[in-house]
Structures are given as structure tokens and as C-alpha cells.
Amino acid sequence: MASGVPRPQIDTSKAHSARVYDYLLGGKDNYQVDQELGEWLPEAVAHTARQNRAFMHRAVAWAAGLGIDQFLDVGTGIPTEPNLHQIAQGVNPAARVVYVDNDPIVLTHAQALLVSSPEGRTEYLDADVRAPGTILRRAAELLDLSRPVCLSLVAVLHFILDEEDPRGIVRSFTDALAPGSCLLLSHASMETHRAPDGAGTRDRYRSDIPYQLRTRAEIERFFEGLDLVEPGVVTAAEWFKDTPAPDPGSLPVFLYAGAARVP
Questions:
Q1: pLDDT in tens, 102-116
Q2: I need a surface site. Which of 11, 40, 147, 250 has the fewest CB within 10 A?
Q3: What is the pTM of this model?
């Protein structure tokens, strides 16, 4: 962050979704309260976090391989290398990436998101996924929205409750994107495997961080009006394009993922 800008206040008295996710991925940007919740969660949840990250890597590389050189990552989270811009710029060094999040813990790490290749650009916006108009207007300062953009909504929509109209939010984004753009999306679900302690996990996690699990059919509705690409909406460990099949591991994956093109 620029000098003179006050550091955001971080509440370390309760767990935070970005910090718990960082802990599950083996990161160090978390506090005891996050570690305690991470330790309490089943090992399959940590496995799901790792599979979700791997899905993001594969999906971004696929989008960049299509020739898309602009990326809008909403709900960025704490930077964990390799991050989205490193994957995209590994395929096309001139790729431009706009990261978006409104969590104070992410803002403290924003500089790590801005380390671009010399040919490309990265930018960070402090904004809320619930305000797509604001995000698109500000992102247009770096991205050319008349050309295809890859929109990443990875592991963010389960933190948007139904009363906040998550499908309307997604539609506001995709309606503004040029034909040929793509949407990458993943979303938590207990429908994939119903672990014996699943209800307890939901109760404990909800008490710290509001979220809403959805079924595969509900998640597929986020792609309405778009051209869903094969293999469709599957678990994060099952999604791949033009690469060898990933190793799903032996644990459940409590998260669906998919990608679609804007017609």
C-alpha cells in the first residue's frame, strides 16, 4: 500500500474466511483463532481447499490458452503462490489482472498481488462482490471490457446468502462482458459427500463465518445464459481441460466447479 495510507484494522478475536483458507493451504497469514477452527474442521475440508486452488490454476491456464489476456478475480483472498496472475502471465506475459476483495486481511497483502511480469499489469481494488457495477467501472480503468475477459468467482459465492441475490450478482457481471469472455466459478456443497459430522461442521462454521451451501443444481443456475464447457459442473478435483486428469486423492471434495463462455 502507498505510504501514509493507514493499515486496516483486523479483528483477531474471531475466525476469518480468508485466514482460515490460508491456514488450510499451509500459509502463515493467520491467527490462533483461525488455526483453531482449521484444526477443528475435518481433513477433507483442507483437501477441498487444495483441490479448489488446483482447479483455479488449471482453469486460468485454460482460459489464457484460449487467447484471453484480461482477468478479473473477484474474492481474491490472501495471496498464496502461485497466484492467478502468475498462472495467466506464465501463459501470456502481457496478461492484465485485476484483483478484487474487501477484506482488511487481504488489503494488507495487496502489494504481493501487484508484482506483475514486465509486459503485463496487475491492480488491486478494495471492493465488495455485492457491488458488481462499482467493480466493473473501476476495473475498466485497466481492462478493456469491449474485449474478452476471464471472470473468476472462485470459492466466493457461498459467502453470499440467497437474500443477497447471488445469481443477480453473477448476471450483472456476465451481462457486462464481451462475447468470448469466460466465467470460472467454484462453490462449496455438502451434496458431493455427506460426512457423518457434516451438520456439526455447518453449525460451527456458520457461527463464525456466515455462508450458504448449495446443491449442484443450484450452482448450475449460475451459468444460465452462458455456454457451459465440458465437463460441466463437477467436483473441483474432476474439472480439467486439455491436460492429464488430476489426482482427486482419497478424501471427499466438498466443492463443485465449472467454466462457461459468454456467447
A1: 888 788 877 777 889
A2: 250
A3: 0.88
